[in-house]
Amino acid sequence: MAQTVPDALVVLSTMITPAILILATSSLITATSSRLSRVLERVRHLSDLLRAGGHAPDAKKSFLAQIESNVSRVHLMQRAMTRLYLALTLFILTSFMIGVTLWSKSYTFVPLAIAFFGILGLLDASIRLIIESRKALTVVETEMAFVRQSLGK
To answer: Residue 102's pLDDT is what?
Structure first.
């Protein structure tokens, strides 16, 4: 059965869409992983400062508050990463199922349903990352307030 040019373009565009979603999700995974590493390094640094001792009670209180806030951020990012990896898996499965449905001409709704759940995972992860970035801003503002207070400004 010969395909016409419009049919070939439909097949091509159908197969490209999951690839774009895979690329976007992979980029978010890379960026989130980098942010997660930086926050974990910050928690370790603050923990080392606390263990070293010799700090005023206000400084200890500030360090502990920052650690708690950053641990909360880590949990959000970890959950977002889980959703991103799930979405990535679903987008890869979507690509596979597109090929299967093009070959078998049955169950054509399956790739769409799988992609839909992948998009929901991507949405959930994005919302968690928005919340995390707002917490990051709060952590920085709290730290700056402590610095200003310490300097008497």
So the answer is: 80
